[in-house]
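Can you give me the bound-state structure? Components:
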Amino acid sequence: MKETIGSFVRRYRIYLSIVGAVLLIVFPVTLGTPYLIQVMVLVFIYIVLASSLNLITGFTGMFSLGHGAFYGIGAYTSAILALGLGLPFWVTMPLAGIFAALIGAFIGLATARLRQTFLVFGTLAFGEIVRIVIMNWPDLTRGPFGIPGIPAPTIFGFSLKGYASYYYLVMVFMALSVFAIYRLYHSRVGRAWVAIREDETAAATMGVPVFGYKILAFSLGCLFAGLAGAFYAHFVTYISADQFSVTESFLILTMVAVGGTGSIVGPIIGAVILIVVPELVRFLAQYRAVFYGLLLIVVMVVKPEGIAGVKAIFMRAPGSIGFSHKRKKPAALGSEASQ
Amino acid sequence: MLGTVLLQQLINGITQGSLFALLAISFSLVWGLLKMVNFALGEIYMFGAFAGWLIFTYVVQNLLLALAASFVVGWALGWLIEKVAFKALRGVPHIASLVCTIGFSFFLKELATAIFGAETKSMPSVYSQTAITIGGANISWLQVLMVMIAVVMLLLLQIFFYRTKIGLGVRAVSLDYRTAGLVGINVDRVISVAFSLSGALAAFVGVLGAVYYSAVNATMGFVPGIKGFTAAVFGGITSIPGAILGGYLLGIIENLSVQFISSGWRDFIAFIILIIFLLFRPNGILGKKSKL
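Here's the bound-state model for the whole set.
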């Protein structure tokens, strides 16, 4: 069943993507209520966030639980520059991305040598530090009160205030980001990342500068997160520190893990599922976060690489096939390969 | 005057340090066996606190009964998480198990919010009278009791590790699980028991934490969870004495530093210590030299 869906999609992918693009373009003018358009804008922003985390986690194999912090850094940078210096969105948005990328490079420099488990905790601690700094620096960030009244972007003198116009803006941003990440994945750089993910030592032996490429992955992932933060801030017009807490990082990581780690479509599927499904089922909307946690547990146990992910990251160690309780003696507690 | 304040903070630090030390042991217990981290320990701590709160509110205000109830709840949760996140994922790289326990962490937190509501509940305070006054600093009976309970718990753990058969098994498996399996140790059982014990310990600490801060809510587990891990890394996650040392040091450093900078930055200290130690001394203060 899965194979037939997969081959069907592969065979007709050009037609399917044209149909999808047309549907997305006509969506706001046909059946888009303000509420639905708002949901779609969030879906687009989360697609960028999940894809950018996938660049770090899926391509390069570094699990980060601090992505929400870079998203927040982007949102705050853009908001502060727009309100404090009165700069237009087209200046603050790239600056937000660049600033997030710089911080990301710095954090990557510090944490890229950590092993997986410690990297998760290191990035988590960093994310919390960002939140604490935002909360305790009222002169710059207004602390716990958040920043209200962030202006909408303007284009050729027109203010993009309505939902529909912002929808198209974010859609273009999302399409460009995903395309850029797709091109990166299929470039020399992307192949180096995959080589590092598959086997760091082998990659280094083949002459790949492992450390440099890890930092590049980290800062590029953070660049897109920062840009997404800027788009989010100017859309919702009010931001506060708890919008970018560890819960946000968890949500983004869940999107990548559920949708599929290491593929281009995986994070897109994940973002769509995690944002749209709770909106469709009212029962789930109430227990949205319970659903996220449960979904992550089930996916990790049943299909660790996610719905459309790359198997290599979660390959079972040789000699341990299936669930070990069916076997008499455990041969492998953990995979030696991952060590 | 400053001396008194510092002494008071030192006493608070030691009390809090007892909590961190026990949590750090929960982390190093599992780390020693599997080189894995149960991310959901903080949420088990929170469920333990809720178990204690239920006993206090609906049954009787008895600390021992509350501790016993939380121990059982924590044991059950630890057992469940081991079965789902670790046993079912044998042989898959560790990161899958870690991500799965991250899922558990958020699932349990939101489950508690759904069951008990999002608002903070007040925990009845017990033994809050002043026991001793040293140099103007007050020590409450609760603080004395908490340090004593922590010490008793640490001694019981020593007995468990060095005087029981299953404790011997835990030590053997953490040295070399293959050889341990070959000489007839039931590795699966040892791991299951160690995991459940680690959860039970975390839930046990949860009751102490809830009584100490006299508050219970669904998000209370996250910060102690991270700080327990920090304490374990700080002291040396591969060694139990290191975890204890790390816990007490972290408690003292945190409380003393609050005196000099605003309390909004309290958690900042722990996170900075965590990052610095992960980077420059991942084996911690007492940890054995091993490649992490």
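A couple of observations. Chain B has a mean pLDDT of 86. Chain B is about 75% helix and 5% strand.
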